[in-house]
């Protein structure tokens, strides 16, 4: 099992190009199942989760070709299968996003209930309620969701009980081929929902309101092929900015779409960082100063993203002063706390969703273990800021979501080595 060795102490300095968004690429790959013609998707990040989704598409009969620039060409000419097996869905929750497209295109889908990161129970009840509102019969048999519809999905007016990114994407995809109009209320407003909507619109879907909490989708008979580029990864961008701040460095990100994480940039400014933005770039300069502690509380977009909570906590760990970190989206997303404390962090949990962090001047290397995707990077950040060499075990979690992490960190001057 691969491990990372990180020798702390170097200030991150330099330029980086942000990769394509994992959380956009995955639903867009799933959405390509809806297209009748060939689809080319560019700016797809080279990540383990993406490979899993491509494998799943292959298993569903999609012909997938990858070129050297990670442009993915998808053809559904022979796509007939509607069965997504447990082996592929269990490792990644986003696999469940094939359910909507399969159901819409073939009138039937048989998809294993999902797995993914161990951050809470993460049910898919809203996805299923929405499919049912569109006329699907839903059965749960032996860990599989069997959904079917006699002729075609029917447009519906459906209000989600809570804001769910995946639920919104799955239902939006299904509605593109439904008969009549679908209105999805209490929809997620995340940029990745907008990106999927734009992809579907490029294929001929009729969707209005993406980026607001009400989506109006007029079903069409078929979607065409087309070309689309995935948006930049705002979580990766935010993560490297936080890492630069924690190591008192400076960084400039290109292809960075700063408008998709303005709140995170504001929080970094609050931490004392000099943050500048242009149309497609962001720069952060700490001017060599210790960051200041900043309270954060996760919320649905445009609130502070849960996917950057762990990394920002690592920043607070080495900041001046005390801060509160509140996690409102997932019920079990503080697994990094124990590991950060092994490096010398001072963190107290107040109940399951609030952590009080008292910043320390120094962290010290220790062996730690990655527990989930984003939490893993909080350990990388702490290790970069610590004295000595930290060994991070189980980094397969990081490889699910961060492209070429050693290369990128090395490019910024960090001393990092992967060992097996
Ligand atoms: C997506 C992101 C993930 C991010 C999360 C929240 C992808 C591939 N993953 O995950 O990185 O952390 O959004 O921004 O895009 N819920 C229900 N019932 C449902 C669906 C969700 O109760 O049917 C709950 C979940 O358990 C969770 C909350 O709603 O507590 C938010 O989940 P959701 O927005 O659906 O997250 P994902 O789409 O799985």
What is the structure about, briefly put?
This protein has 420 residues and is α/β, with parallel strands linked by helices. 31% of the residues lie in helices and 24% in strands. It has helices at residues 22-31, 48-59, 86-89, 99-106, 125-133, 165-176, 191-202, 234-246, 262-270, 309-317, 336-342, 373-385, 396-399, 405-411, and strands at 3-7, 13-17, 39-42, 63-66, 72-75, 83-84, 108-112, 137-141, 144-148, 157-159, 181-185, 206-208, 214-218, 226-229, 250-254, 274-277, 281-285, 296-297, 322-326, 346-349, 354-358, 368-369, 389-393, 415-419.
Question: What would you note in describing this structure?
Answer:
The protein is an alpha/beta fold and 420 residues long. The chain contains 14 helices and 24 strands. The chain has helices at 22-31, 48-59, 86-89, 99-106, 125-133, 165-176, 191-202, 234-246, 262-270, 309-317, 336-342, 373-385, 396-399, 405-411; strands at 3-7, 13-17, 39-42, 63-66, 72-75, 83-84, 108-112, 137-141, 144-148, 157-159, 181-185, 206-208, 214-218, 226-229, 250-254, 274-277, 281-285, 296-297, 322-326, 346-349, 354-358, 368-369, 389-393, 415-419. The protein has a 4-stranded mixed beta sheet with strand order 22-23-1-24. The chain has a 4-stranded mixed beta sheet with strand order 2-15-17-16, covered by helices on one side. A hairpin with a 5-residue loop joins strand 12 and strand 13 (214-218). Helix 1 (22-31) runs parallel beside helix 7 (191-202) and helix 8 (234-246) packs parallel to helix 12. The chain is elongated. The model has no long low-confidence stretch (mean pLDDT 95). Uridine-diphosphate-N-acetylglucosamine is lined by residues 23, 26, 93-94, 120, 122-127, 162, 164-167, 192, 306-307, 329-330.
